[in-house]
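RECORD TYPE: protein structure
NAME: Indole-3-acetic acid-amido synthetase GH3.8
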Amino acid sequence: MERIFYVKTVTCRVWTKARDYISCSLNQKQGPGGLLARPVLTSYYQSEHFKTRPYDPYNVYTSPNEAILCPDSFQSMYTQMLCGLQDRHQVLRVGAVFASGLLRAIRFLQLNWEQLSVDIETGDLNPKITDPSLRECMDKILKPNPELARFVRRECSKENWEGIITRIWPNTKYIDVIVTGAMAQYIPTLDYYSGGLPKACTMYASSECYFGLNLNPMCKPSEVSYTIMPNMAYFEFLPHESNSSKFTLDSSPKLVDLVDVEVGKEYELVITTYAGLCRYRVGDILRVTGFHNSAPQFHFVRRKNVLLSIDSDKTDEAELQKAVENASRHLREFNTSVVEYTSYADTKTIPGHYVIYWELLVKNAANSPTDDVLKQCCLAMEESLNSVYRQGRVADHSIGPLEIRVVKNGTFEELMDYAISRGASINQYKVPRCVNFTPIVELLDSRLVSAHFSPGLPHWNPERRR
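PREDICTED:
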């Protein structure tokens, strides 16, 4: 019998032999007409389909419904972590909807393992858990286990957390998590915490519609392609070279039907759903990789129009991520990696310049990267950006030197908490790769550790433009 360990508050899912550990965002709003607006996973977990689900030996959760549905994210996460630790030998797979969610769960364990071990040792629940139904439920589950408490203390008190997932849950076979698109930058950190476990990207979906499946879930993250399921909606595709931002049923760019897409070309996904969305632009850019029978298969490229711009330059999400990846190579000899990043187009300076916020995982504090190394990271990023950007830096002097601002560990967790406090769904949250909202910029700057500027100009050849 397989159990599922799924933390939905941080969108983390850990599959086990007997039960599942789930945490969920119960974020929802009521519109002017009285209808509820909420993410699809919130809708599912609040529904009778979930609450009265029939027994399934492959989907028995480690956490009770009370923990899953608790509206307080701390209480929900805390009790689910307790359940997950108690069933640690039954865990077969660990995962999340997004990679950032799984890392947030690990961070929660880092911050709370001491109190969790006390609860496990004594069998008494933390007084911070105040929800009556949750306390009543956990009183039936939580029993004194001094041996497990000693194990948790021994493993979590170590400075080195490499392989912590397989150390805590030794029977884990793979990680079930989305690591395509912008989530690819989490792969090195996931490898660090999981000891290099395989990463399975199983599905492609959104709150608007379920799109497709990965028929080869154990492939490398870079090779993931999703097969579109044509019975889920009516799918059309807007060739990516089209720059039109608006279209109507009467006047629109040339849309391509599902069966007419061409291998190697990129398209923006357009859907018409059973729920009533008509030619809705999802905002995802997909590249056709092949066909399964007559159904096309797509590689997720990026979200559309996530840009940094100072002058005439335009930097999208994929290009920014590639620049971060190239720059982070300078950190390898220091056993350091970029855990999280976002960016900001600072136009207050003259000329304006790109600001990249980095949160670093330094595995050996005695060998942390120096100021000179981080300056070289700035230059490496600039070398990776497009020719229009580099022309602005070198020839036009319309863009200032790129700046990397290193922030304290946990800063991006605070950023997520801030977004949730303003109504964002935990289950749907993704770290914004570009920010311009003043309170967010102020939050990031308030956690500043150091700032580093590009020490020189990137290469630019006016005869060859990329």
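COMMENT: Confidence is low (pLDDT under 50) at residues 8-25, 242-251.
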